[in-house]
Amino acid sequence: MIQDVTDSDLVRVRAYLEAHMDTSLFLLSNLAMLGPRLGEHPNSGNYRCVVEQGTIVAVFSLTRRGNLLVQGAGRGDLAEQILSACDSEPIEVTGVVGDWPTAEALWRLVCADPRFEPTLSQKDLLFTLPLTGRAETLTANARLLSANDFERWEPLNAAYLAELRIPLELSHDQRRGEFESAARADRVWGAFDDDRLVAIAGLNAVYARLGQVGGVYSRPEERRKGYGRAVMRQLIADCRNRHRFERLALFTGHDQLAARRLYESLGFQPVGTFGLFLGTRPGDTRAGQRFKWTGQSGEVYTYEIHEWPTRLSPGPGNYIFAASEAAGGWRPILIGESADLSDLAAHERARGVRHDVTHVHVRMNFNPVAVRRREAADLTERWAGSGYSE
Fold this sequence. Notes:
Layout: E1 2-4, H1 10-18, H2 25-34, E2 45-52, E3 55-63, E4 67-71, H3 79-86, E5 95-99, H4 100-111, E6 117-130, E7 142-144, H5 150-163, H6 172-184, E8 188-193, E9 196-207, E10 210-217, H7 227-241, E11 247-253, H8 257-265, E12 269-280, E13 290-294, E14 300-307, E15 317-324, E16 330-338, H9 344-350, E17 359-364, H10 369-383
Helix pairs in contact: 3-4
């Protein structure tokens, strides 16, 4: 039986996840920071559990990003039940992250959908490191990064994501906000060659006295020069002495031999396997999937194009109901903003949008509602005389 996780279930859910802590850090960290309900944060999601004879045997959460986080303790036989439960969510599954047997079984089912395009299918080795003993003497070329280091960190992190074929889901400003938050919490490190940032590492999940390392990267031309080792040694020292962690965990691909050798030389030991799967569900689009709309102010806004009607991922943003013109252009019919783009069908009905709508243009926008409304007003003022009507 699958049931929603309520406040009265939290003690039991945490106990189950803590019993499998090394492969549950994303679930535990998100639960601690964001709670068990879907919110506006991209990592939030509704927590659910599988219960057999009164005992929790799996916990999962489909995040706003579309990633299905799961802990099934090796129960691949639960995959169909878990995925079926996700059908009731307003979000489509585009990734699966969790213990290998459960995640891999779920991924096979997700990929059976012909609309789905996998981009990353990775069986990772999971490593852990007990933080005992005294810190070693460190070199001077690695340190914690501050909020002022964003413009140096951002290109390296973007290159890391590109190498793994993980899309940039957030805007530049949103990435800056997440980086600055992590830097203020002392969770991002860098190694330098003089004043040039050449290697990065961070903590992508924290729970109790356990930290999960992620985003360890240097460009190919900077590898085998000791920069990765320097940033990892500084991270380990600060996690031991500043954060007072008892243990670190990380995962890396089976075929990442250089990374595995580095981690093992630093004392990390393999303890299991972990599944990391990502993909996309391309909608029916045209014009290269995007169109640039210019507002009265001269500002240009880039919108994704979808045939209408369609099922959109939830989240706040701006929208333009439009009709496709024979010459290949667009005639805007209704411009607005929404706290949840997955509810656009309700907007269409409530505002009496004409039946000649052929497409909807959308732009995810996590800024405050006043900013979204300002964008809608800017576009409305520009396009009101070009066939726009409500």
